[in-house]
Design goal:
Shape: globular
Mean pLDDT: 92
Number of helices: 13
Largest sheet: 6 strands, mixed
Radius of gyration: 22 Å
Strand order of the largest sheet: 3-2-1-4-6-5
Low-confidence stretches: none
Distance between the termini: 49 Å
């Protein structure tokens, strides 16, 4: 399994520097922690966010992570956030709220420990599940790229993090073999087997059915699709970035005359990058299409569309800007 880790990992993220590592207490994250230690990472900060979604079992997960970190002599940061209550207040789904709270948690830990790298334990099977879910939602090429080995995000509190997924090409079964060979003890989340969440049904129902239909495991092919799509998306994004630079004025607004003549695909890429650069969180395809509609207004006319987080995109005098 060590041979399947990214060749650049130790060079780009030296083992003698501090790094955060997300540990849930489950198989995947405890294997990640053990693998990182095996290849020489010693200055790791173990981070666990207790979502409080499973009552006493959630508390047991947190206690298990503390013990695992303590056995390795590593610092351990644990916080508890009432996800259900916050999701109800914000109107977000449990999954979306939990994800946003995780980034905020990692942002706080980044400030406290003076490091911006976060190691995460997503693996090949997670990637396959992500791609299948996105296919069914009608994603574009960028979405088909799935999760990346390296991905930079800016949290809601304005902190830049670099997410690193060293296990992304390694199947879950290999992680289980590693854990068994090293006698690792992990916590099982019983809800993973329940047909409640969409991802659970993809993992436990859809993928086994596809394997039965095609007579082979679909996960390697889905992961390969992600690799190819990520490379093509990166190339298209570089071209869109050049077009975006030409379309921006000195205030950061977009000149409609520079964007409107572009092909539809290029318009979408440019507008998505622009919206993300303005700090709009969680840009969706619907948001991009709404902003695109402003490009077709008659010259000299204005218009405004609503965006998430009480933001608006306005067109006036041949410019688009966020307010």
């Amino acid at each position: 399994m060590i041979d399947k880790l990214p060749a650049w990992l130790r060079d780009q993220f030296p083992p003698d520097k501090p790094h955060l590592v997300g540990v849930s207490g489950g198989l995947d994250s405890l294997v990640l922690l053990d693998v990182l230690r095996t290849i020489g990472y010693r200055d790791l900060i173990v981070c666990h966010l207790n979502h409080g979604l499973r009552g006493r079992e959630s508390g047991g997960d947190a206690a298990h992570v503390r013990r695992a970190a303590g056995a390795l002599g590593l610092p351990c940061e644990v916080e508890k956030v009432p996800i259900s209550a916050r999701a109800a207040i914000s109107g977000l789904s449990i999954e979306t709220c939990a994800r946003e709270e995780r980034w905020l948690f990692f942002g706080r830990m980044s400030q406290k420990w003076g490091c911006r790298t976060v190691f995460l334990a997503h693996h090949r099977d997670d990637q396959a599940e992500t791609i299948l879910a996105r296919l069914c939602r009608g994603t574009g090429v960028r979405g088909l790229g799935g999760m990346r080995f390296r991905h930079e995000i800016r949290t809601a509190q304005g902190i830049d993090l670099e997410l690193i997924r060293p296990l992304l090409e390694i199947p879950r079964e290999a992680l289980r073999e590693w854990a068994s060979g090293k006698s690792l003890k992990w916590r099982e989340d019983k809800t993973n087997a329940e047909p409640i969440a969409t991802r659970n049904r993809i993992r436990n129902e859809a993928l086994p059915l596809l394997e039965d239909i095609f007579g082979r495991d679909p996960r390697p092919a889905l992961a390969r699709l992600a690799t190819l799509a990520a490379a093509e998306s990166s190339w298209m994004e570089s071209l869109a970035r050049e077009a975006l630079q030409q379309a921006r004025d000195e205030s950061g607004a977009l000149r409609v005359k520079n964007v409107a003549p572009l092909p539809d695909a290029a318009q979408r890429q440019v507008l998505r990058l622009w919206l993300e650069d303005t700090g709009l969180p969680g840009v969706e395809q619907a948001d991009v299409e709404a902003v695109r509609s402003l490009l077709t207004f008659a010259p000299g006319s204005g218009g405004r569309i609503n965006l998430p987080k009480n933001k608006h995109c306005r067109r006036k005098a041949g410019r688009l800007w966020i307010e």
